[in-house]
């Protein structure tokens, strides 16, 4: 007799959410966690600590640069970095405790240690003291997430050459921060240290920032970041980092062709060139778990792996490496195990960059629509024409809505602007229901709100925006 209906390996947003949903559906559930705290990368060294630092550093920036124009006169703010790090830690602790509470509330057993799949129905757990035990279960869900992608020839020491983990815990503001990779981590953590006083240079392999996001949005966002003081070296790569001296010497080369290489100096180098699925301790080979060409666990499209009754979700399988994607997959697989029709709509997964302004993206980009040969109409509305943004003097950015030329169905929504990450969700609901731009345009929006720009962009699809 199996002790559990379900054992979930990993307690990141994918794993713990899956465990809770399964418990709600009447299953006897255990989670296996190798770290001393629950919550995985997101809660401990990812989404949550970075948002705490983004918020705190934004307040620092505002106090120094925006208060005076509103007539709020304060002394020039000074930075107490240990206190800011403490603020971050309190946020982490609060959320980690929250997960612990939820697991207990749902009567989910927590088994601390690294989980290894021995095959159908068997998980071996090795605890920190080296002891192992085998847990028997009807079903296994692997939710082990991802790890930092290493760059060839560059050794991350988490002090001077850091990944996102080290960049969240620097003990002083670097004079010069060189970021490798103009993706989400590079721009978010680059923003934190820029606001706190670092000179930030971003070296990006491609000739654009934020690959995968709408091109026009990325271009405008780059301009805004440059206005904030970011320097970009697009179409370049880092060949090596010499850490023998007191300053790092970073050899930057053109990504293609044989243009001139250049050596840049930096106090800290942040490697932010992506993440890779984390399968290290899983024993996937012995268990017979098939991986794809990028090291992700292969599934049948409904989370089932090549081993019977073993499922996988989140960063360790195909799809965007996003906490909310993992959460939705966790819910879906729990429902499938309970005999329900668990499902994730991959066409409507928002992507948000939590900088100032924020960037939020949903559905297809213009580039994707063009490539698919889909005829579409564009409605755009700038925050410079939005009343609320004007009075707050926070007018950077715009809303862009892409709608099917024939049916008017909304196919993509892309926003740069403050609170874009909150505003995107009305578009998500609309798209979940297969709504049209006209549906959105005829939905009453409170005045004065920034969300009115979303409504105006929807009206602009039919060339009838009022305030433009
Ligand atoms: P990313 O995939 O977003 O960006 C990596 C960037 O590095 C790309 O622009 C890529 O072209 C560039 N790159 C790759 N190799 C390079 C090289 N040798 N030299 C120069 N540039 C190079 O990866 P990132 O930012 O590390 O984030 C990892 C994952 O975490 C992503 O899947 C991301 O979506 C997720 N994440 C999400 C956040 C959010 O939703 N707000 C926040 C932070 C991370």
Describe the protein's architecture and organization.
The protein has 468 residues and is an alpha/beta fold. It folds into three domains: 3-148 and 276-337, FAD/NAD(P)-binding domain (3-Layer(bba) Sandwich); 161-273, 3-Layer(bba) Sandwich (FAD/NAD(P)-binding domain); 351-461, Enolase-like, domain 1, CATH 3.30.390.30. It is 32% helix and 25% strand. The strands form five sheets. Strands 1, 2, 3, 4, 5, 6 and 17 form a seven-stranded mixed sheet that branches. Strands 8-15-9-10-11 form a five-stranded parallel sheet. It has a five-stranded antiparallel sheet with strand order 18-19-22-21-20, sandwiched between helices. Strand 5 and strand 6 (132-142) form a beta hairpin. The longest helix has 25 residues, at 81-105. The N and C termini lie far apart (68 Å). The relative contact order is 0.12. The structure holds 1,4-dihydronicotinamide adenine dinucleotide. 1,4-dihydronicotinamide adenine dinucleotide binds at residues 151, 180-186, 188, 203-206, 211, 237-238, 272-275, 321-322, 352-354.
> How would the global form be characterised?
globular
Low-confidence runs of at least 5 consecutive residues:
none
| CATH architecture classification name of the largest domain | 3-Layer(bba) Sandwich
Query: Per CATH, what is the topology of the largest domain?
Result: FAD/NAD(P)-binding domain
Summary keywords:
binds 1,4-dihydronicotinamide adenine dinucleotide; 3 domains; FAD/NAD(P)-binding domain; 22 strands; Enolase-like, domain 1; alpha/beta; 5-stranded parallel beta sheet; 7-stranded mixed beta sheet; 468 residues; 14 helices
């Amino acid at each position: 007799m199996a002790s559990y209906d379900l054992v979930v390996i990993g307690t990141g947003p994918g794993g713990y959410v899956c465990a809770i949903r399964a418990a709600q559906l009447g299953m006897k559930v255990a989670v296996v966690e190798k770290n001393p705290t629950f919550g995985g990368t997101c809660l401990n060294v990812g989404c949550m600590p970075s948002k705490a630092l983004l918020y705190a550093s934004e307040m620092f920036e505002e106090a120094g640069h925006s208060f005076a124009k509103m007539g709020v006169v304060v002394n020039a703010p000074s930075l107490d970095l240990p206190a800011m790090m403490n603020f971050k830690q309190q946020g982490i602790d609060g959320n980690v405790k929250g997960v612990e509470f939820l697991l207990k509330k749902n009567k989910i057993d927590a088994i601390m240690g690294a989980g290894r799949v021995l095959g159908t129905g068997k998980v071996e757990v090795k605890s920190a003291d080296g002891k192992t035990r085998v847990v028997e279960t009807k079903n296994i869900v692997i939710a082990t997430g991802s790890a930092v992608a290493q760059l060839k020839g560059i050794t991350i020491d988490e002090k001077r050459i850091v990944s996102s983990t080290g960049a969240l815990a620097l003990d002083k503001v670097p004079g010069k921060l060189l970021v490798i990779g103009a993706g989400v981590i590079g721009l978010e953590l680059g923003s934190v240290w820029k606001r706190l006083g670092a000179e930030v240079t971003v070296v990006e392999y491609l000739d654009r920032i934020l690959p995968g996001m709408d091109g026009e949005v990325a271009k405008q966002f780059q301009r805004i970041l440059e206005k904030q003081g970011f320097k970009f070296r697009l179409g370049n790569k880092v060949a090596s980092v010499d850490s023998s001296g007191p300053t790092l010497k970073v050899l930057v080369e053109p990504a293609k062709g044989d243009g001139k290489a250049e050596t840049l100096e930096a106090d800290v180098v942040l490697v932010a060139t992506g993440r890779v699925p984390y399968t290290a301790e899983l024993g996937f080979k012995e268990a017979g778990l098939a991986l794809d060409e990028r090291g992700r666990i292969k599934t049948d499209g409904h989370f089932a792996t090549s081993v019977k009754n073993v499922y996988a979700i989140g960063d360790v399988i195909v799809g965007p490496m996003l906490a909310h994607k993992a959460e939705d997959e966790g819910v879906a697989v729990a429902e499938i195990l309970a005999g329900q029709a668990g499902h994730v709509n991959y066409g409507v997964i928002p992507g948000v960059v939590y900088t100032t302004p924020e960037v939020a993206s949903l559905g297809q980009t213009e580039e994707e629509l063009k490539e698919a040969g889909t005829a579409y109409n564009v409605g755009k509305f700038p925050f410079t024409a939005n009343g609320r943004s004007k009075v707050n003097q926070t007018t950077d950015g715009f809303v862009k809505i892409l709608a099917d030329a024939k049916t008017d169905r909304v196919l993509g929504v892309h926003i740069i602007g403050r609170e874009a990450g909150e505003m995107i969700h009305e578009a998500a609901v609309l798209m979940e229901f297969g709504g049209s731009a006209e549906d959105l345009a005829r939905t009453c929006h409170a005045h004065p709100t920034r969300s009115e720009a979303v409504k105006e962009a929807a009206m602009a699809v039919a060339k009838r925006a009022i305030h433009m």
